[in-house]
Each structure stands twice: as C-alpha cells, then as structure tokens.
C-alpha cells in the first residue's frame, strides 16, 4: 500500500471579491477570508478516498506558507488526512514564492517521506499558474497524470482519465507518480464535527525551506497586477421591441 | 421565447429567473377572480385616454400595454394568483408616482403597487384590472452615512444590490431573505419582511429610520428622517411598514445598517427530533449569546426535496431534522472559542448528532443556499400551499405531522422549516395541482389550529389577497375596525390595492 502526499494551498476564498492593491503589486490579502484552494480540496478528497478504499496507507498534507497555512492543514486533517507538514514561508519570501519553489519542496518531501503518489490541484485559483504538478514530476523524474477526472489503481500502476480539450484521454502510469486534480475528479466532502475535533489533535510538523535545503530566491518578477476591464453594466429594457432593436443594433441577431 | 428573454434581462437571481420562465412559458394559472370567486368593485376601467395620460407623464416606453409584456406582472411568484391588468406603469421618481396616483384617485382607477413581485400571499398582483404600479426603475441609492449607518435609497432598489453596496463600505442590510436577488426594499418595508437574521438585527419597525410615501390622493408624505430618535408627534412611518400597499406607495426608505461582522461562522447539524432542536436553541442562546445571528431549522422532507428537485449538494448526511446556526461577531478567535465549546458540549450531550461547521465564505454560501431554496423547491412538483405562521416555540412543529395525517397521499410533500428563534415556521404542502378538495382540507383548518395555539396566521408574509378572510383568527374586532377607519382616512376611494389585507366586513 502506498503513501500519498497532498499539496494544499491557502488562497483567498472563491466567494470573496478580489481587490487589487493601489500600487498594482498584487492583490489585497489583509483582512480577507482565505480557504483551501478548491482544486486542492479535490486532491485531498481523492487521497482520502484512496485510503478509505485501502489503496493508500497514509495521507500526508503539505502546505507552504505563513502561520495561517496551518488552518488550511487542519481542514485537510479534518477531511481525513493523517498528518500534516507545514513548510513555513512568511513575509516577503512568501510574496515571491513560486511554483518552482513549491515543486522543489514537494519533491524533496516526497523523497524524505517515501511517498508513492503526489496529488495536487491542477492550479491554484489565485495565481492560476498550473505548473506545480508538472514541475514536481520533472524534478522527481516521475510520470505525471495531470487534469485527472478519474484515478484508478491498475496492475502496479495507475489509470488516469485526463480532461483534455474536447474530450477525455486515458493514460496508464507507473507508481510513483504525480497527479493533478481537475474539477470533476470528485466532490469534496464537508468535514464533519467529530473529524474537525479530531483534526485538532492530529500531528502537524513545522519545518522551513532551509531545513529542506531549498533556495527560495524568486525566478519571476511580477511587473504589474491589473483589474480585469469593468464589465458594462446591464440595463433593464422596457419591452421586447426595444430588446430586439438593441440586439440588432449590437449585431447580435 | 421573447418573453423569456425579457424576464432574463429584468431579474437578478438565476434561481428565480428559472421559476419565472416556467411561469411565463407554462400554462397560465387560473384567474384569481374566478379561482376565489371575487366580485369586482365599482372602479373605473382604464380607457385609451387614461393610457395616453400615463404616457404624457412616463413616455411611451414606461407604459406597458401589450398583453405579452403585461402578463408576467399579473402572475405572482408561486403561480397561484393571476390578475387581469392591462397596464403596467414604471415611474422613475416620487413626483411621477404622485402624478399617477392623483390622477387615478380622481378617475377612481384602482392601483396595485408592485415591487419585486416575490410576495407569497398574492398581494403584489392585481385581482381584476387594477393598474400595476411597478417601482423597479426607482432604483437609486440616495445617500449613506458611514458613521451612523443610515442609508437612504429609492423603494425599487433590489435588496441584494443594496446589500452589496453597503458591504463594500463595511456595513450590511439588517435583513436578509431567500428572495433577496429580486425583492425590493420598498416591498420589504411594505410587507415588514422578517427573514433570516431577524433574531439578531430585529424587526424592520426598529431598523427603518424613515419613509417617504405617496398617499392615494398623490400627496407626498415626507417622513424620511435618518435619525435614530425622533419623538415629534405620531410615528407615521410605522403605518407604511407592513401595510402591503393599502395605505400608500413607499417611494424612499431610510434604513439603519449594522456593521459588517468581521467573523462569520455557519454550522449545519443533524438533530434527532424536534424536542432536541428546542433544547439546542436554548443552549445556543446561552452559549453563543450576542454573536448568535440565525437559528434556523428544516425537517428531513424540506431538505431532501430541495436537494432532489434543485440538484443541490447536502453537505451532511441524512437526518430527521436539520439546524443551521450562524454567528456574527467581531473577533474570530473569541467567536471560535465560544462556538467550539458549544459544539463539543452538544455533540457530547447528543443534541447534535453530526454536522459540519465552516467560516469559509464559499462553503457558508452553499449551506445557506440550501436553506434559502427550500421555499421554491416544491414548485418543481406542482402546486404548493404555503403557510407562514408564528407559534409558541413548544408547539412550533406540531402542525406538520397533523397536516401530513390529514392529507394522507393527497400531498406529495408536507414539510416544515423556518426561523426557530422567531417562533416562525413555514409549512409547505406540495400537491400535483391545486384542487378545491385539498384547499378545503387545509383552510381554514390550519388557521383554526394556529388560532387555538395563540399563534399568528401570518408571521412574516403578510395578509395580501389570500388571507383577509382569515385575519380574524389573529386580530381582534376592535383592531380590525380601527384598521378600516385608517384605510378610509388615508384612501377614501379605496383605490390602493383593493381586495387585499382588509376583510370585507368586521
Ligand atoms: C424564495 C423566497 C423567500 C422568501 N423569504 C422570506 C422571508 O424569509 N421573510 C419574509 O418576510 N418574506 C419572505 N419572502 C416573501 C417576500 O419576498 C417578501 O415579502 C418581500 O419583502 C416582498 O418584496 P417584493 O419587493 O417582492 O414585494 P412584492 O411582492 O412586489 O409586493 C409585496 C406587497 O407589498 C406591496 N408593495 C411592494 N412594493 C411597494 C411599494 N413600494 N409601496 C407600497 N407597497 C408596495 C405590494 O402591493 C404587495 O402587497 C420570500 C419570498 C420568496 C420568493
Ligand atoms: C430624572 C429623569 C430622567 C429622565 N431620563 C429620560 C431618558 O433617559 N429618556 C427619556 O426618553 N426620557 C427621560 N425622562 C423623561 C420621562 O421620565 C419619560 O418620558 C418617561 O417615559 C415618562 O413616564 P411617566 O410615567 O412619568 O409619564 P408621565 O410624565 O406621567 O407622562 C408623560 C406623557 O405620557 C402621557 N401618559 C402617561 N401615561 C399614559 C398612559 N398610560 N396612556 C396614555 N398616555 C399616558 C401623559 O399624558 C404625558 O403626555 C427623564 C425624566 C426624569 C425626571
């Protein structure tokens, strides 16, 4: 049976309205509600289901970030992960933390923890990079099954159904492997009260990138973050004729 | 089809848009006048000269007379009532409302004031050919005092839009209800809407600071103060709060907005039986105290039919009863500690069987969404008889099993849900289609039962068209007489929302 390592990132909750900082260096995060990246929830759910199906022996959740990343790890523990590793990255270093760094951290931890499968979300909804799974696989030189909508165990390896443009692709990989979770992989559960309580007592280890020997010097410089163009306000039209006229005017019919 | 597009343009909230499309594209409900055997009162009928006059005030675009255009304004949200109005007017200012009413009063044309048309007692649609006066274009926010929290807005502002506006300024609207994406502040005031957070922020009679309204004769009554305290003379604004368009048309509202809570948490629990819900409520009040902002319940049928009909996720497993607890506070740590203590205690005691708790906005929304959609879920099955009653908490749930037994297999679903904290239960009875037989089994039975338990036959939805003849179950004769006198004083020709609220005689 295998050990599954799951990456979970703390991001601004998807239901919160995003505000760009006045100096365009990023978005406002202070005083803003954060939650686990939704694709990472799917990753955790998949790992926990593997354990429930006795396909995995242990689920280890990893989060790289400031102290509050522990809340996200507690959520993963409440969903069913067995233990958690918090790789503390705070302050300015966290602001420039990039997929390459996270991939290196995950790769190193996978080796240290003797993981057989790494599952991460296909992307984080804040930076939308969609790179961590691929880079982790490259660093480890493991096979990868990205955008997974179905993962099954098959003779010594995994059968992964991938969501690709206009359809599905089924691939087989050997284990160890890296998987990235797409939206339709599963519907993540809500942590139940007893599990929320239990999660408080599950082991959570704190380490630093330095402990792992990983250099966090930024490789990418963010030049500017801009708001998307404001959508034109809708308008209420008095009757069908006016609507039809407007549609014609705009060349829509 | 075109009709559908237009509705899409007008409405804000997906869920209700779907419902309205259904109502526009399906078989029309029976005419209210026939269904309930009502006699038209002696009002004038709209002539082309009247339409022309309206057009001189509003222009051509804001006077709807085409049948297709007018139909949706004649049908209420639950597709129970259908009026026969030929004209819909959409004023943009208080002045225009005043001119319209003064004209109608003189000509003895009856008028039906209409907001978001989400009312559940048939008050918002005409019965015969009353002129529909729809406030949707009076949708400007006039001012917001960020220090006192006093907001002034026009009556046609959609509740959710105003809430979003004040939220960006760290305030919230003191009321919240499932229809927020469509209902209007003027409609909320006119129905004295209660909703999901009454427990915490109180009744609109407390939050409304001022009202501007137009009387039947067109005279504008300016009580639009933003003061918390104003003891100069009679408190006239209260006459317009909850009078359901029968005493005047509300055109502007001043409302007190509480601060946006910094910490919000929602718990959703399974509970074994109703008695345990009451115990849990008592415990929540004492453990959570000032941070408790909502305490809602729903029975198994309410949740399972909503999950099934609207294909929504249920975040927890199947239980006989469900409770939703929300806290609003100013300190996450402090609130979290209180909540944890409460949860540990009640998990241990067994009052809470299981459930989930979250302060992630997305997850909280999913939970609230399930609760808020119960109201409309039954419409997918057919016709829904809706009861909205106040009962002493110990009798809160008694009626549901009684009704279930009384109707047997005539009903598809009989479910109960509502605001435990306010002693207000909603009972929805879903049947394949409206029949007099079922109606006869339910009414006046339900009202008699409520009256015997010293409850109110309408806790928050009002009296509207559907309940005037039952109002005596909850109001004393002396009170009804004074209501009639007030009506005569404020609207001597009775043009404002006739056939509604007041019983024919008392
Ligand atoms: C899904 C759903 C959930 C709901 N939940 C709740 C709830 O929790 N609590 C609750 O109290 N209600 C609830 N309701 C009922 C309804 O939404 C409220 O009564 C709401 O306040 C009505 O607002 P409206 O703008 O839609 O008014 P309408 O339905 O248009 O009108 C309601 C009444 O007010 C009159 N009126 C409207 N606007 C004015 C005006 N400007 N001046 C004078 N009279 C006017 C109408 O003539 C009518 O009598 C719910 C309805 C739905 C569909
Ligand atoms: C030391 C002091 C402190 C005060 N502090 C405050 C304060 O903080 N806030 C505040 O609002 N007021 C305050 N007041 C004013 C006063 O106490 C209040 O207005 C109080 O509510 C009056 O109650 P009362 O029974 O003395 O009424 P009265 O003084 O007897 O009557 C007041 C008015 O009410 C009428 N009235 C009395 N009883 C009835 C009845 N049963 N039915 C119909 N009409 C009736 C009377 O005709 C009269 O018009 C204060 C007064 C004092 C002396």
Automatic annotation (TrEMBL), chain A:
- Going by the entry's taxonomy, the superkingdom of the source organism is recorded as Eukaryota
What is the originating organism of this protein?
Loxostege sticticalis
Q: Where is the Electron transfer flavoprotein alpha/beta-subunit N-terminal domain?
A: 24-216
Q: Which Pfam families match?
A: ETF
Record text on subunit structure and interactions: Heterodimer composed of ETFA and ETFB. Identified in a complex that contains ETFA, ETFB and ETFRF1. Interacts with ACADM.
Location relative to the cell: Mitochondrion matrix
Q: What does this protein do?
A: The electron transfer flavoprotein serves as a specific electron acceptor for several dehydrogenases, including five acyl-CoA dehydrogenases, glutaryl-CoA and sarcosine dehydrogenase. It transfers the electrons to the main mitochondrial respiratory chain via ETF-ubiquinone oxidoreductase (ETF dehydrogenase). Heterodimeric electron transfer flavoprotein that accepts electrons from several mitochondrial dehydrogenases, including acyl-CoA dehydrogenases, glutaryl-CoA and sarcosine dehydrogenase. It transfers the electrons to the main mitochondrial respiratory chain via ETF-ubiquinone oxidoreductase. Required for normal mitochondrial fatty acid oxidation and normal amino acid metabolism. ETFB binds an AMP molecule that probably has a purely structural role.
Which InterPro entries does the UniProt record give? ET-Flavoprotein_bsu_CS, ETF_a/b_N, ETF_b, ETF_beta_N, Rossmann-like_a/b/a_fold
Q: Which UniProt keywords apply?
A: Electron transport, Mitochondrion, Transport
Q: Which family does it belong to?
A: Belongs to the ETF beta-subunit/FixA family.
Asked if the record carries the keyword Isomerase, the reply is: no
| Name this polypeptide is given | Electron transfer flavoprotein subunit beta
Please state the protein's primary subcellular location.
mitochondrion
From TrEMBL, chain B:
Against InterPro entries, the record matches this protein to:
FAD-bd_oxidored_4_C, FAD-bd_PCMH, FAD-bd_PCMH-like_sf, FAD-bd_PCMH_sub1, FAD-bd_PCMH_sub2, FAD-linked_Oxase-like_C, FAD-oxidored/transferase_4, Oxid_FAD_bind_N
Reaction catalysed by this enzyme: (R)-malate + A = oxaloacetate + AH2
Tell me its cofactors: FAD
**Pfam families per UniProt:** FAD-oxidase_C, FAD_binding_4
Where is this protein primarily located? other
Q: What is its EC number?
A: 1.1.99.39
Q: Where in the cell is it found?
A: Peroxisome
Described purpose of this protein according to its UniProt entry: Catalyzes the oxidation of D-2-hydroxyglutarate (D-2-HG) to alpha-ketoglutarate. Also catalyzes the oxidation of other D-2-hydroxyacids, such as D-malate (D-MAL) and D-lactate (D-LAC). Exhibits high activities towards D-2-HG and D-MAL but a very weak activity towards D-LAC.
- What's this protein's family per the entry? Belongs to the FAD-binding oxidoreductase/transferase type 4 family.
Protein's name in the database: D-2-hydroxyglutarate dehydrogenase, mitochondrial
Q: What is the lineage of its organism?
A: Eukaryota, Metazoa, Ecdysozoa, Arthropoda, Hexapoda
